[in-house]
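Page 37, continued from 36.
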């Protein structure tokens, strides 16, 4: 077992985190819609170059010509990161709620569940990345733009609780339009809830790595997404609270070139490193390796 931060004593008390079961995923490629038509065409939104879908899939949805990072499904993201056969999904059962009785909201959620094979806008689980065990959560832009409602907030919170109990680091890939308006104030409350979960996890010595992808905005960027120990981002990702056009209309001024893009934020110290998608697995493995060595040195000093 690899440890990060403070070593904890065994707690015999049953907690909600302890009740979350790990569900084996025998074949992570199941239900991936992209696999149904591998010979379909794909047009890059950056340079308009055309490719076969199978070619783009092998390149993790990154254009070979201009390097534009297209959106990638949460399941495929997990496949690109986890060592084969190591991913175990956190089986968190959260009943659907429509607190505002929003028209057609339940039908929309049911339709997305059938279409994507996901139960909500985030996939979380325990896996190994080049042999280093970690808890991973991936927000799904294909599920209502990865917006954060009650279920997503609870899943993110449980992710930190499970990692804390198992003495493992947390890696979260964010991709969200922000809070889910269909759930009103209860959606906004998830900002405080997830932020408190990060604080508790950090206070216990846990390592939290955030990987910001396009787009990371609204209540997600204003809460757990920007509270990590290490913040990575994909090239060209839009990161911020409100969009550039809204800000320009509000302040009545033209924003700097590339404002709120990952490159601009790295230049101004908001992002630690921009990592292309093809290098993300190696980079995360290196981070986990470095912190494991630091943990071992702490253990020697304590002895």
């Amino acid at each position: 077992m690899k440890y990060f931060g403070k070593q904890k004593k065994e707690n015999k008390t049953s907690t909600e985190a302890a009740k979350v079961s790990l569900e084996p995923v025998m074949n992570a490629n199941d239900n991936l819609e992209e696999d149904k038509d591998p010979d379909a065409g794909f047009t890059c939104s950056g340079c308009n170059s055309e490719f076969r879908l199978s070619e783009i899939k092998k390149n993790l949805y990154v254009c070979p010509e201009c390097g534009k990072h297209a959106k990638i499904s949460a399941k495929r993201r997990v496949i690109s990161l986890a060592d084969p056969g190591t991913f175990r999904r956190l089986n968190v059962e959260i009943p659907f709620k429509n607190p505002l009785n929003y028209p057609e909201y339940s039908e929309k959620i049911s339709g997305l569940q059938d279409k994507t094979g996901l139960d909500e806008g985030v996939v979380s689980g325990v896996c190994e990345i080049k042999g280093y065990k970690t808890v991973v959560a991936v927000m799904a832009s294909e599920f209502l733009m990865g917006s954060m409602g009650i279920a997503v907030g609870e899943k993110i919170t449980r992710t930190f609780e499970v990692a804390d109990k198992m003495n493992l680091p947390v890696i979260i890939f964010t991709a969200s339009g922000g809070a889910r308006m269909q759930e009103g104030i209860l959606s906004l409350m998830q900002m405080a809830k997830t932020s408190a979960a990060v604080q508790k996890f950090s206070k216990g010595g846990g390592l939290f790595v955030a990987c910001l992808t396009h787009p990371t905005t609204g209540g997600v960027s204003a809460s757990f997404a920007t509270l990590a120990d290490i913040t990575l981002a994909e090239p060209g990702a839009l990161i911020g609270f409100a969009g550039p056009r809204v800000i320009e209309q509000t302040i009545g001024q033209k924003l700097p070139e590339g404002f709120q893009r990952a490159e601009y934020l790295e230049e101004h110290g908001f992002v630690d490193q921009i990592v292309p998608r093809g290098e993300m697995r190696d980079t995360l493995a290196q981070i986990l390796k470095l912190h494991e060595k630091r943990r071992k040195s702490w253990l020697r000093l304590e002895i």
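The domain at 16-31+73-302 is CATH 3.90.226.10 (2-enoyl-CoA Hydratase; Chain A, domain 1). Flag for discussion at group meeting. The beta strands are 21-24, 41-43, 50-52, 88-91, 122-129, 132-139, 170-176, 208-216, 230-233, 273-274.
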